[in-house]
């Protein structure tokens, strides 16, 4: 016979073992249930012709869902898959800000340093007022070239050198005193790319590869050149009077450090994971990079408080979207919980904010609604 104390210990040990083995199974089942709901949600968006692209969702750092919807190339009937490369538009800005912060950490750039300190041939009257911090936070007052009259119709198809473009399109009179207002500004990030090149003596593209893409093993990310053969690159599309059409051509020297990169949902997951480490930047400088300023903009990221329809509180989100001819993209990091949502669309204009909110509600166990088809 087994004595009562020994029997009790046996039962307790057995229950503990069962708990240890059952708990991961419950967690796994929960992730599967969320993935199933996300799939139903995104399939409905696709069926309603409201999304055509790729999705990746991670919960507590682990990928629970990734999938492609629709076509990467409509003329050749090639499907979207998680490894298809999309132009990411202004998500580029967070990579530019990381390069700047790396150079700040190395003492090669000062956040309060003036633009004229680095671009010595820039116009002195404004270059002496605008700081690197102003450029990073969209508070420089320099006019954004994308807002110039007829810029896209008359200019965006022509290639430019960095130096020529800075002189012609990023050197306008200040719209306000630097630091006094927030105004989203592609010129500011173009200028940051020029500063990176000046300080390092290398092209922006080279510096990106050496300092971010190679260390993080983001082999499917890079600077998008129209004339380069890039395997599994998605084509961009837009809406025209006769339905879907090829997106208007844009020379990729124009978006530059403000928006010329391509990537995949899988590579942006690697990027997200690297940001939780000190692989690219010490914690002290990451805290500086993610500190919000005017309009909750940090260095290349919006710092948001999302309610998700929850009266109990808000959820801390670090995110940025991107829009460029034929593409729109969104990366959202719920850093308190290490959740990640990446959405890439290659038909332009999809309501990615709405999709992100619904996916986040699923992750946090909140009520969500499936989208309804709008009349054509």
Describe the secondary structure blueprint for this structure.
Blueprint: H1 4-47, E1 53-59, E2 62-68, E3 71-73, E4 78-79, E5 86-87, H2 92-105, H3 115-118, H4 124-127, H5 132-136, H6 151-154, H7 162-169, H8 186-200, H9 204-216, E6 222-223, E7 237-240, E8 243-246, E9 261-263, H10 265-274, H11 283-289, E10 302-306, E11 315-324, E12 327-334, E13 339-345, H12 352-363
Antiparallel strand pairs: 1-2, 1-13, 3-4, 5-9, 6-9, 7-8, 10-11, 11-12, 12-13
Structure description:
By secondary structure, this protein is an alpha+beta fold. The chain has a single domain, classed as Beta-lactamase. Helix content is 37%, strand content 17%. The protein has twelve helices and 13 strands. It has helices at residues 4-47, 92-105, 115-118, 124-127, 132-136, 151-154, 162-169, 186-200, 204-216, 265-274, 283-289, 352-363; strands spanning 53-59, 62-68, 71-73, 78-79, 86-87, 222-223, 237-240, 243-246, 261-263, 302-306, 315-324, 327-334, 339-345. The strands form four sheets. The chain has a six-stranded antiparallel beta sheet, sandwiched between helices. A three-stranded antiparallel beta sheet has the order 5-9-6. Helix 1 packs antiparallel against helix 12, helix 2 (92-105) packs across helix 9 (204-216) and helix 7 (162-169) packs antiparallel against helix 8. The radius of gyration is 23 Å and the shape is globular. The termini are far apart. Residues 1-22 have low confidence and may be disordered.
